[in-house]
Amino acid sequence: MREIIFDTETTGLDPASGDRLVEIGCIELFNRVPTGRTFHAYYNPQRSMPAAAEAVHGLSDVFLRDKPLFSAGVEELLDFLEDSHLVAHNARFDFGFLNHELRLCGLPEVGMHRMIDTVAIARQLHPGAKHSLDALCSRYGIDRSHRIKHGALLDAELLAQLYIELTGGRQIGLGLAQQEEKGTVQVELAAIVAVRPVRPARVFQASAVELERHAAFVATLEKPLWLEEA
């Protein structure tokens, strides 16, 4: 099962008020295991960056002004996403901005049936607790010491680790069910089968030269045990 963990950075909180997407980071998982494939891009939002937003992610007008428009790289992004389920933290926020940019390009939106929200999963598993990415990383012992500011790819990498923990941890393929006092989250994990090429059996046979050298060596031994009579 292929899934994409993704995160976005934006100029603000509401695309309907003119806020735009400025960064997206994606991590590919297959059967809950990172494959090493990623997608990362910055976009020129064609508007100024509010100071409050820049304080969160550090992306300034100067940094973004020479970056491509979202429309220039949208096909590459869609090729990476394919038709996979998309996992995000507070996913309606990220889906809202992604679909807003797709609408501006005249392209179909990403269906909400593809959305997996890790906040919703965390609320089921840990009702009443804090569900921010930072709080959940602390709960599951995920190192975020290198996270000084928000960054889409960095946050997607942290979220990938968190999603694996929320859906059964590293014990892939065991069909674990995680029990909680106020409900049950059933997690079905597919087994990973390593496919290896069939190789012909190796022939381990001494050559004539090797046999000759071995006989010469044995002849130098004084009363070898295997030649003594029982």
From TrEMBL:
A divalent metal cation binds at residues 7, 9, 155. It is an enzyme of class 2 (transferase). The active site is at residue 150. DNA polymerase III is a complex, multichain enzyme responsible for most of the replicative synthesis in bacteria. The epsilon subunit contain the editing function and is a proofreading 3'-5' exonuclease. Substrate binds at residues 7, 9, 57, 155. It comes from the Bacteria. GO terms for biological process: DNA replication proofreading. Its cofactor is Mg(2+); Mn(2+). Residues 2-172 form the Exonuclease domain. This is DNA polymerase III subunit epsilon. Keywords: DNA replication, DNA-directed DNA polymerase, Exonuclease, Hydrolase, Magnesium, Manganese, Metal-binding, Nuclease, Nucleotidyltransferase, Transferase. Gene3D superfamilies: Ribonuclease H-like superfamily/Ribonuclease H (3.30.420.10). GO terms for molecular function: 3'-5' exonuclease activity; DNA binding; DNA-directed DNA polymerase activity; metal ion binding. PANTHER family: DNA POLYMERASE III SUBUNIT EPSILON. GO terms for cellular component: cytosol.
